[in-house]
Amino acid sequence: MTEPTDLQLIEHYVKLRDIVTTKTKALTDALKPYKTGLETIETALMARLIQRGADNTKTEAGTAYKVEHLNVKVVDREKFLEYAMNGGEDMLLASPQKDAVREYIADKKDPALIGVECTIFTDINVRKS
């Protein structure tokens, strides 16, 4: 049996990717009424909890309970950094920005000098002609 050519591999890859895209869209469409149903029930349960002044409702089938989420966005970077650097360090999450680290490495600098470790790998993408 002969090994497939690059042309054959890429053609087959594109065909499989198109099938995955089509089936994913079909599944998303098929699940839409179920997701809508879940949202409708969640809304009804939330209204009932609010009406009762309750945080949860327990039944034999399960428990519905309120969960508070917090979304945070920096709107004044200077104020935030001033606060963080003057005793509010617990507000910071230290993680290096990939683009800045990539530039640092491109300048032939050792990332270990700034306390980071990098793993670089090469992946492959395929696009349709």
Give the biggest sheet: 2 strands, antiparallel
Q: Tell me, what's the shape?
A: flat
Mean pLDDT: 93
Helicity, as a percent range: 40-55%
The count of domains is: 2
The secondary-structure class comes to mainly alpha
Strand content: under 5%
Q: Can you list the strand order of the major beta sheet?
A: 1-2
What are the low-pLDDT stretches, counting only 5+ consecutive residues below 50? none
Total strands: 2
First-to-last CA distance: 28 Å
Q: What is the N-to-C order of secondary-structure elements (H for helix, E for strand)?
A: HEEHH
| Backbone CA Rg | 26 Å
Helix segment count? 3
Task: Describe this entry's structure for a reader.
- This protein has 2 domains: 6-65, no CATH class; 77-114, no CATH class.
- The chain has 3 helices and 2 strands; from the N terminus they run αββαα.
- The chain has helices at residues 6-52, 77-85, 98-106, and strands at residues 56-58, 63-65.
- It is flat and about 70 Å long.
